[in-house]
């Protein structure tokens, strides 16, 4: 479901204020670059902006989301709103030329046209040069929105012809607070906010049963290593490997394990307000008394080493067995 203006204002207040002012003052630029990290709302804002330009029942600057134009923009079939994304690894010259030929025709339903280019930094040199010609001679009522995570990879000549709007990444504290506002417990919100800064991704993980069980297994492994180390390998064989069977899943598991051991070090350094696994605080406090800081740092290094080995295509079971042996060492 597409985002509303109010929802995006919560995530990107400065951006939405700039777009609102340009709409209210009738000063919409012919070309924008929306730049910022993954999950910052660039694409949602681009389509919302398109709706504000084409909506039949605009409320000041906010689209109604229910008129035929809003609904067609949502379903990607508005004849005057064009969306381009990489064809394979790049955006090809032919895609930009097709766009140009579409735009030489009169607007089908109004005198306005808008195009959105996703991952604009992935244009080939020829595609970028074709777009540049397009930007150099903008026709009235034609609008462009280029989306990118890497604005420095765009041609300077393209950047100079666009208004740049920067989407800031949510800080972990911002994200944790927003998750808690949506009913996520503090323990889960703190962890999710450390794993990604994408609000949608955090909510997807939170609602996924797999993630809940993954977190439990990370806690269980730490507890087993602390209280019954001889059973740790059994836990890896019987439960861990079945649950973290893919490389991406294993990476997430190791990231959580790393955070748990970082919490242990934080408690030892008396930086208790930075603890992520807040619901494990008392157990970690006891654990912190029983091992040295030196041992905790060695454990963190062992987990980081295991994470690095993930990239070398090492057998996942061997990787975990080696990690457990490293963590068992005194």
UniProtKB/TrEMBL annotation:
Keyword tRNA-binding: no
Domain of life of the native organism: Bacteria
Keywords: Nucleotidyltransferase, Transferase
Protein name in UniProt: DNA polymerase III subunit delta
One Pfam family recorded for the sequence: DNA_pol3_delta2
GO MF assignments: DNA-directed DNA polymerase activity
Entry EC number(s): 2.7.7.7
This protein's encoding gene: holB
């Amino acid at each position: 479901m597409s985002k509303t203006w109010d929802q995006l204002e919560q995530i990107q207040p400065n951006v939405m204020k700039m777009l609102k002012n340009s709409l209210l003052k009738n000063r919409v630029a012919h070309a924008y670059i929306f730049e910022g990290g993954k999950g910052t709302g660039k694409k949602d804002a681009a389509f919302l902006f398109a709706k504000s330009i084409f909506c039949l029942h605009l409320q000041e600057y906010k689209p109604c989301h229910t008129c035929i134009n809003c609904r067609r923009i949502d379903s990607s079939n508005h004849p005057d709103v064009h969306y381009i994304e990489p064809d394979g690894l790049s955006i090809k010259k032919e895609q930009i030329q097709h766009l140009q030929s579409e735009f030489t025709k009169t607007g089908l339903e109004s005198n306005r046209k808008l195009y959105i280019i996703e991952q604009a930094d992935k244009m080939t040199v020829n595609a970028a040069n074709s777009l540049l010609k397009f930007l150099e001679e903008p026709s009235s009522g034609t609008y462009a929105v280029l989306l990118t995570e890497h604005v420095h990879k765009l041609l300077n000549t393209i950047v100079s012809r666009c208004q740049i709007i920067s989407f800031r990444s949510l800080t972990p504290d911002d994200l944790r607070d927003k998750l808690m506002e949506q009913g996520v417990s503090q323990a889960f919100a703190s962890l999710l906010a450390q794993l990604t800064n994408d609000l949608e991704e955090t909510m997807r993980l939170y609602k996924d049963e797999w993630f809940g069980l993954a977190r439990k297994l990370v806690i269980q492994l730490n507890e087993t290593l602390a209280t019954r180390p001889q059973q740790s390998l059994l836990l890896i064989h019987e439960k861990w490997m079945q649950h973290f069977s893919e490389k991406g899943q294993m990476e997430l598991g190791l990231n959580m394990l790393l955070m748990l051991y970082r919490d242990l070090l934080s408690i030892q350094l008396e930086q208790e307000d930075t603890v992520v696994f807040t619901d494990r605080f008392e157990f970690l406090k006891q654990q912190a008394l029983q091992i040295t800081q030196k041992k905790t740092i060695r454990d963190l290094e062992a987990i980081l080493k295991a994470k690095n080995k993930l990239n070398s295509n090492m057998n996942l079971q061997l990787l975990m067995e080696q990690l457990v042996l490293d963590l068992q060492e005194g």
